[in-house]
From TrEMBL:
Name the record gives this protein: Proline--tRNA ligase
Keywords of this entry: Aminoacyl-tRNA synthetase, ATP-binding, Ligase, Nucleotide-binding, Protein biosynthesis
Top-rank lineage group of the source organism: Bacteria
PROSITE patterns cross-referenced by the UniProt entry: AA_TRNA_LIGASE_II (PS50862)
GO aspect biological process, one term: prolyl-tRNA aminoacylation
Tagged with keyword Disulfide bond: no
PANTHER family tied to this protein: MITOCHONDRIAL RIBOSOME PROTEIN L39/PROLYL-TRNA LIGASE FAMILY MEMBER, PROLINE--TRNA LIGASE
Keyword Transport: no
Native organism: Candidatus Komeilibacteria bacterium CG_4_10_14_0_8_um_filter_37_78
Catalytic activity: tRNA(Pro) + L-proline + ATP = L-prolyl-tRNA(Pro) + AMP + diphosphate
GO cellular component: cytosol
Pfam family, one: tRNA-synt_2b
Length: 412
């Protein structure tokens, strides 16, 4: 993509009403624009990053046998009354009247609609298990939407739901999902802790949150180097106490961002909405259910909170909006021809490249490239006639290569 033909408008100053690092950098670098508190437009660069995150999640969901669906954001009141949640969710759910006075809510989560769909389709034990997920925008009337992509009122969620004959089957699949989340975060270069948190539904069962440690997080967690971790909302220990897992006096406290949360819901929704099946003796049984959330847009914001410096964003390779940022520095015909040639060669090798071919000063181009934060940078300059300069965004070191050796720098 030639930058001269691309829609990127960087801003010199961060908007004064945005205080979070992720919102400031993403707006200045041309990834997002704020429409209202908690609702952002994704610009071309932003869509590419968000799509890469969604794609990594989608691949892992497909790997664990789940199938993708897409449910509506518009939801009727009656199914939410079956579980008593229409009233409970009143503060957080956008609720309004449609034509004919019908009560409608915008989806905060999708247990009710998916159970409603499934109860018309599951009859026998042979119809189970079922694993379905979607990647869809959720709406929540959050009281404080001040942290950019970390807390949206309209935000992206991947929600997976699983349905089982037995509690044991649910428990086994829950562990499979947990491991798939570990893989997703590894691919994203994010270090996460798996944190025990309140189950919500059963008081004795924990749910598990995936938390990234950062001073800018809203959650507080207690953790130990051995991997044990609990959310402050349930913890009964203090900093310096013995860890209940490894017995060392090592409990630490940190702020963190919750990027995923998985729950065993048991038969709560199945009983409330009559999702049942006939077992192999012809006896009616209620289905066991699990739900597994992951926030692609919150993850995008978290990555920016974790990976940045004074000059801008530093994307991990897996979500960098473009694999390479090619900069042309110098405006004589010879240098431009050389950069054009490298651009064509990269494209021929399926390396997605953003080519800054604009007629702008080297200083401005380098500054913008730092702000945008593409992982790998190539520079064709009039100061270096024969060689191409190669630099990683996160490192100072520059190496020089002949054109024929450039492709090898990308693992294609
Ligand atoms: P929080 O406690 O931060 O409000 P939650 O526990 O209500 O979040 P879940 O219902 O567990 O969130 O949602 C699943 C995932 O969706 C979260 O782990 C997070 O990644 C994402 N998420 C939830 N709320 C938001 C939001 N307002 N903006 C962006 N992402 C969100
Ligand atoms: Mg949660």
């Amino acid at each position: 993509m030639r930058q001269s033909e691309y829609f990127i408008k960087t801003l010199k100053e961060a908007p004064t009403d945005e205080t979070s690092i992720n919102a400031q950098l993403l707006i200045r670098a041309g990834y997002i624009d704020k429409l209202l508190a908690g609702a952002y437009t994704y610009l071309p660069l932003g869509v590419r990053v968000l799509d890469k995150i969604k794609q990594i999640v989608r691949e892992e969901m497909n790997n664990i046998g789940a199938h993708e669906i897409l449910m509506p954001a518009l939801q009727p009141k009656n199914i939410w009354e079956e579980t008593d949640r229409w009233q409970q969710m009143k503060d957080i759910m956008f609720q309004f009247k449609g034509r004919g006075g019908i009560d409608i809510g915008l989806g905060t989560t999708h247990e009710e609609p998916i159970v409603d769909m499934l109860r018309k389709r599951v009859n026998s034990y042979r119809d189970l298990p079922v694993y379905l997920y979607q990647i869809q925008d959720k709406f929540r009337n959050e009281p404080r939407a001040k942290s950019g992509l970390l807390r949206g009122r309209e935000f992206s969620m991947k929600d997976l739901y699983s349905f089982h004959q037995t509690e044991q089957d649910l428990k086994d699949y829950y562990e499979v999902v947990k491991q798939s989340y570990v893989k997703i975060f590894q691919k994203l270069d994010m270090e996460v802790l798996i944190v025990e948190a309140s189950g919500g539904v059963f008081s004795k069962e924990y749910s598990h949150e995936f938390q990234v440690l950062t001073p800018n997080g809203e959650d507080t967690i207690y953790y130990c180097q051995c991997g044990w971790a609990q959310n402050k909302e349930i913890v009964k220990l203090k900093v310096g106490d013995d860890c209940p897992n490894c017995n060392q006096a090592s409990i630490q406290e940190s702020k963190a961002i919750e990027v995923g949360n998985i729950f065993k819901l048991g038969q709560k929704y199945a009983k409330a909405m009559n999702l049942s099946y006939l077992d192999d003796h012809g006896k009616k049984q209620y289905v066991y259910m699990g739900c597994y959330g992951f926030g692609p847009s919150r993850v995008m914001g978290s990555i920016v909170e974790l990976f940045n410096d004074a000059n801008g964003i530093i994307w991990p390779a897996a979500v960098s909006p473009w694999s390479a940022h090619l900069l042309l520095l110098g405006n004589d015909q010879e240098t431009r021809a050389k950069a054009d040639k490298l651009y064509a060669e990269l494209q021929a090798n399926n390396i997605d490249v953003l080519y800054d071919d604009r007629d702008e000063s080297p200083g401005l181009k380098l500054k913008e490239a730092d702000l945008i934060g593409i992982t790998k940078r190539l520079i064709v300059s009039d100061k270096n006639k024969d060689l191409i300069e190669y630099k990683l965004r996160q490192e100072e070191e520059i190496s020089k290569h002949a054109i024929k050796d450039i492709i090898k720098l990308f693992d294609v």
